UniProtKB/TrEMBL annotation:
This is Ion-translocating oxidoreductase complex subunit B. [4Fe-4S] cluster 1 binds at C49, C52, C57, C73. Its main location: membrane. The keyword RNA-binding does not apply. It comes from Eggerthella lenta (Eubacterium lentum). PROSITE patterns: 4FE4S (PS51656), 4FE4S_FER_1 (PS00198), 4FE4S_FER_2 (PS51379). GO terms for molecular function: 4 iron, 4 sulfur cluster binding; electron transfer activity; metal ion binding. Signal peptide: none annotated.
């Protein structure tokens, strides 16, 4: 009987000691993880823009602790990527430069306003109510939802069209996500420091486009025929440029009869 009691007591003691040791180790590991997370967060910009593909900086920091690459923060750029890589003990790779551009030049001196909207000055509200104050149903609504959402004050509305300050733009993509007409796009830098972009989204036939906007793409294909790298195609009456292969030579800009192609400079 005494043997059974001592055996049970010994097993209980071993179990208790093991539990205590496990608790101590887990707390030490937790403290270590908390310290890593705190340090990674101190390196990141902390603007929670979502450019990295995560909801915020904390989520990205946790992802890096689980192996995510340290070069996804376009807001922080190469400096932040190098600091993150150094702390994590991994190879530092450059951040791909990304810029936003507005695919519309339909300012008030280029289009024909059809009516004045007197409701809430919001692109999303305007779009939801299916109002159309412009002759072009594809153009920028100009109420500045993107400007309000931009965490870096890189957008202003001038003469009815959103304009992006590429020097201030960090490529976070917040504006592109919020635009109800999808006319703001993100372009990743390829091999050239510049790229040509079509500043129009109008897919109407050329004759109809000319009637509603003097700087809209008319699908004439002159740009596609002269592009030395075959980076341009015309689909559904609208020119489209493959920025991955575009070398930024500007030939398309020179031949476009309506000036619907512009040069995007990566900062």
């Amino acid at each position: 009987m005494d043997t059974v009691v001592w055996t049970v007591a010994l097993m209980a003691a071993v179990g208790l000691v093991g539990s205590v040791l496990l608790l101590i180790v887990s707390r030490k590991l937790a403290i270590g993880e908390d310290e890593r997370l705190t340090y990674l967060m101190s390196i990141l910009p902390g603007v929670n823009c979502g450019a990295c593909g995560h909801p915020g900086c904390e989520q990205y920091a946790k992802a890096m602790m689980n192996g995510a690459p340290p070069n996804a923060c376009t807001t922080g750029g190469d400096r932040v990527a190098q600091a993150l890589a150094a702390y994590l003990g991994v190879e530092s790779t450059g951040v791909v430069q990304r810029e936003a551009f507005v695919a519309c030049q339909g300012s008030l001196d280029h289009i024909d306003p059809q009516l004045v909207f007197k409701g809430v000055p919001s692109c999303r509200v305007f779009s939801t109510l299916s109002y159309s104050s412009l002759s072009c149903p594809f153009g920028c609504l100009g109420y500045g939802d993107c400007a309000e959402a931009c965490p870096f004050d890189a957008i202003v509305v001038e003469n009815g069209v959103a304009r992006i300050d590429t020097a201030a733009c960090t490529g976070c993509g917040t504006c592109a996500k919020i635009c109800p007409r999808g006319i703001i796009s993100m372009v990743d830098q390829a091999s050239s420091p510049t790229a040509s972009v079509v500043t129009c989204k109008n897919t109407m036939a050329g004759a109809k486009t000319r009637k509603v906007c003097s700087v809209g793409c008319i699908g004439c294909q002159k740009c596609a025929k002269t592009c030395p790298t075959q980076s341009i195609t015309v689909e559904n009456n609208l020119a489209r440029i493959d920025t991955d292969t575009c070398i930024g030579c500007g030939t398309c800009i020179e031949v476009c009869p309506t000036h619907a192609i512009s040069k995007l400079v990566f900062q």
